[in-house]
Amino acid sequence: MPTAKPAPRAPVHHPLFARLYARVSVAAEPTIAPYRAELLTGVSGRVIEVGAGNGLNFPHYPAAVSEVVAIEPERLLRQLAVSAALRADVPVDVVPGAAEALPVKSEAFDVAVASLVLCSVRDVPRALAELRRVLRPGGELRFFEHGRARGAAFATAQRALDRTVWPLLFGGCHTARDPVGALRAAGFEIGPYRRVLVPPKRPRLPTSPCVLGTAWRPPEDGA
Fold it and tell me: Which segments constitute the Methyltransferase type domain (predicted)?
């Protein structure tokens, strides 16, 4: 697959949301951490993580990982990720960049990680094409994403949110995207995955429908 020639893109800068996310994500980590651990169990070799945020995945990378290249476009979150990288048990290099224009060579990674990021990328098909480009043929994509609910009423409410100010207030987040469908459309082979509610459903507490699983760039993929 030839190296992409990314078009210039405006920088991502959501300073108010970044500060909110940094606080909320840390507070929610007791609930989210087990999913992060499951997401990264068994990962090895060279890894690229897109939308690394403030680096909460970093403590969960196994010792078999030789290097993590962590892409984060938002300036404040990237600074926090750099601090988290210094505490990680595996080598982590935090790099500015967008998922739609990854600043790395083609077929350079054994594993890609997309964790709570596809909701907010500007162009999902392009971002997934980039992940497919940078994975070696047969390379693995681990994903943990929130998205469209299966119930009609909930899904309708999500679409309504996405047409309002929700993406503007929450760093470009869209609640009604279909990550598994998008991965299939991008040419990935879908492996095992499961649907989870985060946090687990409790009376009067809002939950987010998520999917946690694995996909692969087809081994014979040379396009």
Answer: 49-142
